[in-house]
Structures are given as structure tokens and as C-alpha cells.
Amino acid sequence: MTIDEIRRLAERPREVEQYPDDEWLAVPALVALRRSTERTAVVEWHEPLDTAAVLAGVPEGKRDKTLWRLACKLRNAGLPLAWAEQAVTEAAANCDPPFSEATAREKVARAYGQYDPEPRVFPHDPTNEKVSAPIGDVVRAETKLRFRTAREIGAEVPETIDWVAYPWAAAGALTELDAKVKIGKTTWLTALCRAVLDGLPFMGQPTRKSKVVYLTEQSPRSFREALRRAGLTDRDDFVVLFWHETNGADWPAVAAAAVAECERIGAGFLAVDTLPQFAGMRGDSENNSGAALEAIQPLQLAASTGLAVVLVRHERKAGGEVGDSGRGSGAFAGAVDIVLSLRRAEGQGRPGVRVIHGLSRFDETPDSLVIELTDTGYVALGSETDLAVSEGRGKLLDAMPSTAQAAVTLAELLEAAGLSRSVGQRVLTDLLAAKIVTRVGAGKRGDAYRFYQSDDDIATAEPNLSARTPFPIGAETNASDALLD
User: Fold this and answer.
1) I need a labelling partner for 399 at 20 to 30 A (CA). Which of 41, 81, 223, 462 fits?
2) Where are the alpha helices (DSSP H) in 286-351?
3) What digits encode the pLDDT tens for the residues 346-357?
């Protein structure tokens, strides 16, 4: 919407009804603005503001108050923040002398931060069940709360979850991604976005093709590197808003603009990296549950429109269990549907290995998954135990003697391989079942079980050897005692 169009509509006579409806229906926000000034006795208790006159410029001595009233009027009418900024800065430039553009933008940001677009006046529509009965020929908006039965919810909400990125982000749901600094939050999230843009699998799981709107706290210089790593530098369907370009606008207005941008381009995925930065949370405000809920509310509203929303936060220095490890109040985690914590894998020498811990309202999200960033992208390696077993197999075989005469006990073997008891026992179980390792000894005091690497010509299977337990079925079920005694 151009300033000329706003000015042309604002300069028309008050009798809106004489103009064809199709001219107004194209710009619903301006309809609300115009109608809010048609019958000022209902909602205005001072002289109506002449929008056209203000847009043409205000003389010195009246600029500050008048531009503030214009910003409030546009907010009251429900115009998008970008439109309001455009109109108020234009009016400021036309003032005599010109009014500061920065101060004009600050007035818009303050108006949109302090006030809701209320009260509103609407022509009564008898078919609209959400609006109360008319007072004369106009009616103040009055929302009717709708209570639903469980049956209605079951009928209205699809039974299957609409995963945009299975099992990490779902349409209509909020996902929180936490990690310490420089662990790879942005790298992982942009890689996920890259898969979503083309509907390609991500870490072996399906995605649904969608455009993406991404809010980043990074500078263009550093974020370009993240885009390069993710292969996104040539994409027109990945739309970015930099924090430093929000011009001090309040967070609810920024979030609303992001939702509007998603709707404009047809995006189904919204990312906010990081939420505290965009919400303007400073000092100890992250520790305040009220401030946390206020910060996350605009994203809850965004998710209610059907968007898959992922927000990023930093993890506290002390870490902790997933759901409690995010910096600040636990209200953040309580308000979202999925909490993910990205961490380094303990005892790992490979630099690209990470562990995702999950806490979710959906059963599909795993409690723990080991992943690795490779030259071809992220790959899933299984659970932490799976990874430890995979790597422990080689270590155990390297420490395993090759003859029966040199066979060693489990304790000796674990010490030589540098493995924990739980991992060593699982690896040994698999090796025994595959007949790669042979066990000797009676498994009693003075003649403990001992192990050595089997020779293909002489390896034999132990009778009744379970695939998951390194001792005969029916024997004592304590694996540690059975192997060591």
C-alpha cells in the first residue's frame, strides 16, 4: 500500500457507503481505519484526527503530539506495523520543519507495543456469531468464547500429526531447540530448513515441502556463512529477517509481521533464532516466568495459524535434564510442545558428533539420538548406547586375545578395552551370538568365564546361548555375576 493510496482514501468524504464495496474490500485494514472515524461518537472522545492533513505535514509545535496520535490511530485500526511506519515517517518528513524519522519510528513502535487494536467498530453482520447484537447500526467488537466438547475436538482435529520435519517440527506446534553457544544450533536448524524447502529426508526421516521464514539475531556477514554451509545462498524460498533491521519494533509486532510474511509467500515453517534476542529480554528477565510467557505468546499464536514454529534458546552453563537445561525460566519449556537439547557426545573424538535429547508431547520424538555432521549432511547414528556399542566392538576385538590359552575374564577385557561394563557386556553378547568370540570356563569361583577371539575353523556355538545375554538361558539372570564369577 503506497502513501498516495492511503492519502487518497483518507481524503474521501466520510460517507463511505457511496463508494463501491469492491474498492474497500481489497484493503480490509483500511476499511477498519476508515470506519473507525465515520461515527466518532461511538469510540472517540476528542476531535477526530484528519489523516490526510497529517500526512501532508504538521507545523512546528504540534508535530510530536499529532504524530503520536496518528501512530495510535493506525494501531487502533489494526493496520500492519510496516504500513504504520510508512505512513508516520512520510508524515514526519512532510512536517515544517521535518520531524526526526528515528523518533517517528519510535512512536510507532511504542504505540504498537503499548496498545491493542481496540476498540473497533463494525457494521453489524447478523451471520457473524462471534459479534454481539447491534447498538443502532454499529456494534463494538465483543468476542464470544467457544467451548468445545471432546467429541468436537476429535472430529475437528486430524488424528494424524502433520509433520513438517518428522519427528522434530509439526504444523500447529511449537518446538524449542536449546544448546550451549557454538554447539551447532543454527547449523542443525538451517540444515533442517534446507531439507524442508525441497521435501527431502532429513537424518533419514521425511519432511513436507514448504517455504521457510527465518528470523536471525546474527549479522548478514556471519549468517551468510551459515547459509553457505546449508546450501541456501541461491534460494528465493528461504526468507530472512535480521534482528538489527527490526528498528526497535516491539516483539508482538515483529512476530505478527513474520506470520504475515509466511502467509504472503505460502510458508509453513517459521524459525526464530534466538527468541530472547527478538523478544528484547535483558538482564534477569529470562528468569521471570511472566516475562517468559509474554515472550512466547506471539509464537503460540503463530502456531495456532497452522505454522510449524521452531524457536532457539541458549542452554544454561550448568546444563541439566532436557526441559530444565534452557537458560532462564522453566515456563519456556512448559509452553512448547517439543523441547530439544543439542549437546556434544561424551567421550567422542569425532568433532561432528552431537546428541539430541528430546522431551515431547508426541510419542514420535525420540528421547535421545546421536547424530553426526558429515560432508553430505547430518546422519543419524542411533542411540548413545548404539554408538557406544558400534565403536566399542572394535576396541573390544583389539583387546581380545586370539587363543584359548590367553583367554581373559570380562573385567580384564573391559579394562584393556577401556569400556564401561554396560557397553562391554552388550558388545560381548553380540560377538558371542555371532560366534566371533568363544567363551571358556565353568563360570564359577576358581574357574570364571574367560573369552578369546574365535578361530573360524574351531569356533563353536555355546548351547542355548541367548542373542541378548552372554550366558545360557535358564542360568542366573544377573549378567555381571554370570560373566565374572
Assistant:
1) 462
2) 289-304, 331-335
3) 766 688 999 999
